Automatic annotation (TrEMBL):
Record protein name field: Transcriptional regulator WhiB
Gene from which the chain derives: whiB
Domain of life: Bacteria
Family membership noted in the UniProt record: Belongs to the WhiB family.
Keywords from the named record: 4Fe-4S, Cytoplasm, Disulfide bond, DNA-binding, Iron, Iron-sulfur, Metal-binding, Transcription, Transcription regulation
InterPro entries: 4FE4S_WBL, Whib
Cofactor: [4Fe-4S] cluster
Binding, [4Fe-4S] cluster: C35, C65, C68, C74
Region annotation Disordered: where it falls in the sequence: 1-30
Amino acid sequence: MLQLPHQPLQVAPVPSQRAPAREDQAGPWHSEAVCRRDEAGLFFAPSKEPTAARLSREVAAKQVCAGCPVMVECREHALVQPEPYGVWGGLTAAERRVVLARRRRRDIELAAAPAEHIAAAG
């Protein structure tokens, strides 16, 4: 049975809105995606996939993403949509849910911060 070492979720900072279109390229961001050359099955789970197989497949998909020139754009697309399945921008669906929850908490804290600052100053 394949055992993978536990690694904490590492999320690259991404802007809260979709990154602007890449002006240095003629086509949309996904035309430059490395995964366009790989089989989609690497990025999306087959039905009833065993856990060990899923983890191994996700690691392989993330390795492809790590070398992709449009990884940040892909990740942001998946967060903005939000894409409910598959590996996008180096994150699984579960990891994207964590990022979205952190963003929501951050946005709430930032919205509350000015009110707390005014109350403390008064």
